[in-house]
Amino acid sequence: MKVMDELAQRIESDERLAITYRLTISDGRSPEDHARDLAVEQSVEIPFECIPDEITDRGIVGRVESIAPVPNQEKVFEVVISYRSDNTAFSVPQFINVIYGNISMKRDITVTGLDLPPLLLEAFGGPTFGIEGIRAITGVFKRPLACTALKPIGLSLKKLASMAADYARGGLDLLKEDHAMADLAYHPFAERIARCQEAIMRENASSGHNMLYFPMISGGFDEIEKQAEIVKSNGCKGVLIAPFLIGADLIRVLSRRHNLIVMTHPAMTGAYYCDPSHGITMEVLMGTIFRVIGADISIFPNAGGRFSYTAQECRNVGEALRRPLGKLKPAFPCPAGGMTLDRMAAMAENFGSETVLLIGGGLMQQSSDLAKSAATFMEAIEQHFEN
Amino acid sequence: MKVMDELAQRIESDERLAITYRLTISDGRSPEDHARDLAVEQSVEIPFECIPDEITDRGIVGRVESIAPVPNQEKVFEVVISYRSDNTAFSVPQFINVIYGNISMKRDITVTGLDLPPLLLEAFGGPTFGIEGIRAITGVFKRPLACTALKPIGLSLKKLASMAADYARGGLDLLKEDHAMADLAYHPFAERIARCQEAIMRENASSGHNMLYFPMISGGFDEIEKQAEIVKSNGCKGVLIAPFLIGADLIRVLSRRHNLIVMTHPAMTGAYYCDPSHGITMEVLMGTIFRVIGADISIFPNAGGRFSYTAQECRNVGEALRRPLGKLKPAFPCPAGGMTLDRMAAMAENFGSETVLLIGGGLMQQSSDLAKSAATFMEAIEQHFEN
Description:
2 copies of one chain form a homodimer. Chain A is α/β, with parallel strands linked by helices and 387 residues long. Chain A has 2 domains: 2-124, Alpha-Beta Plaits (2-Layer Sandwich), CATH 3.30.70; 130-386, TIM Barrel, CATH 3.20.20.110. Chain A has 17 helices and 13 strands. The longest helix of chain A has 19 residues, at 189-207. The first copy, chain A, is elongated. Chains A and B meet through helix 4, helix 9, helix 10, helix 11 and helix 12 of A and helix 4, helix 9, helix 10, helix 11 and helix 12 of B.
C-alpha cells in the first residue's frame, strides 16, 4: 500500500513498539537472560554473539526496556521489550509475527500489553466503522445492539430465510451467521445470502425495523472476495469472519476495500488465552490487536456461559476495544458463548451500552416463536439499559 | 473448485471424519455429557434440546463414537467423535474450524488424532511435490537435505546475496529465508529475491552445486500472489510461508496454482501444542493437518534446541508426515530451533534420512566462513547418514 510505503520511509529509527510480557521462570536462569533471549528470538533470531554491530546499531534487535518482579508471585517477572515498528513491514501478518510468532513455541511467556506508537497505529488504522459508524448505520444511538446467530447448519434455505425474517420482525439489530455456516450443499452461499437478505428486507420494510445481516465469509483464498461481492450485491452491510481461519489481514481487506462492517469470530483463538501462564491475554488479542487491524465488532468468549473466563478478563477486552488509542475508532465488544436473557443485568454491569449483545441458542430456548424471543430480548435491553 | 463441487455431490451422508480427543474432566460431570457437548459445539452449536430432528437424521451433528478412560490417568478419557466430511465444505478454513474452532476456547481438550476418509483426503490432496518431488528437483535421493536460514533481517542486499552464495558454495541443498524477512526497507522483497537468486545461480553454476532458495512469502492478502510471481520469475522453486500468519489455505494456492514447493513455518502455532492438556498435538497439527492441506516440508520445533519438546513428540510429527495416508504423498519433516552439528547423531536416530535438517544460527556459530560451515554440515550428514 502506497500509504504504508510513505509511512515506512518516514519512520525514524527510534519509532518503536513496546510489548509487555509476563515471564514465569523455572529453570534457574536470570530474568535478564530470559528477557534478552526473548528480544532476540522475536527480532533477529540468531545467536547473540553472532549479531552484527550494524544490526544492533540500527535498533533492529529487540531491546529490553525494563524487568520488574511481580509482587507476591515468586519467579514471575514483568518484562517490557521494544522493537522497531518497521520490523512489522506495517503488514498484519508480520505485526502478529513480531508479537508472538516464535515465542508461541516456548513456555511460560504471556503477552500482557502492547504500546503502539502513533505512526504504527496510523499505518494499520483500526476500525473503518467502529461503534460510531455502526450506530449511524443501524440508527441505534444509545442502547447496546442486539444480535443473534443464524443456525444451525443443515437447515433448508426456506427455513433459514424464515428464521431470519422472524428475528427481523422481533426487532433485533444484527443477525450474524453461525461460523460453521459455510458454502454447504443444504444452503449454498449465494442463494443463502440472497434468500435471507430478501426475507429480512421485506420484514424490515413491513415492520419498520432495520435488522442488518452479516454473512459468514468462510471460503478459501479464492472465494473470499467473490463472497464479499455477493454480500455487497445483496445489500448486506457487514460480514462475520474468523481471522484465524482465513488470515488476519482479511479484516483490513473486507473493511477498507469492500467497505463492509467486519465482525470477527474467535475460532481457533482460545489456545492463546486459555492458559494465563503462556499465550496472549484475551484483552490484547481479541481487544487491542483485533481493533488495531480493523475489527469493528470483536466476538470473544464471555464469563458465565459455555466458556470459563473471568468477568475481569472479559471486561478488559471491552476496555481495550473502546479506550482512546491514537486516532483509532472504538470498536464494539461482543461477549458471547451461551449468553441468556437472565444474564442481562450482569452484561450491563460488565460492559455497559457500547456493546453488541449476542444471544444465540438462548433465543431458541426462550421460545420456538423466534420473533417472540427476539422481542423479549429487546424488552430486556430496554429494561436494563438507557434507551 | 469444480473438483470439490463434484466431490461434494458424491459424498454420501455416511462419509465422516473422526477426531480423537483427550478430555480431562474436573467438574464432576460425566464423560458422556462432556463428549456430547463437544460434538454439538463443533457442529451445530445450539442447545441440544433445540436440535431439529432433520439435522440429527442427516448426521450433521457430531456423533460420539466411543469413550474410554485412559489407563492410569484419573479423570482422563479418550473420546472419538465423527462429523460429516462435508461440514468442512472441503475448504481449508472450515476443515480447521471443524477440528478445533470453538473448543479452542474451552479447557482440557486436546485433539490427539484425525481419521480422515478417502474422499476428504482426495479433496484436499496433500503435498504437490512431497519428499519424492523435492528429491527429484534437488537431485538428492538418499540422504537428508541440508537447509539453513538466511538471516538476520537488516543486512544489506549485498551482504545477503554474498551469504547466499557462500551457502551454495558450501554445498547446501536448501536456503530458506528467516520468517522475519519481510518486505523491509533494508532488503525490499523484489530486489532481495533477484539479487540472492542470481548470486546462488552463479555459484551453483561454478561449483556444480544445486542449492534451492525459498523466499519468505510474508505480505498481506494483496501481496501474496505478487510475491509468488516474483519468486517464480526469478527461477526459485519454492517458498517459505507461515500458515498461521497469512492463512492456511495459502499452502494450497502456492502449491497447486503456483507450482511452488511449500515449506511451512510454525509461527503462532506453539500455543496449540505447548500444553499437553489443551490444544492440538504437534503430531496432528504440524504433521497430519499441514500435510493434508499441502505442505511439502513442515518445520516444527525440535527437542534439544531452543524449544522444550520431547523427542517422542517430535518423532511423532515425522511419522505423521511420512506414513501412508490415502494417496497423499509423504512430506518432509524439518525439525528445527537451535539445531547444531553436534546433534546430528540424535537427528539421524529420531528422524532418519527422509528429513530436511535445518541448522540456522548454528552454522554462524560454527565459523564466520559460511561456506566452510556449510561444507562441515554436509560432511556431518555424510558421516551420519547413508549417502
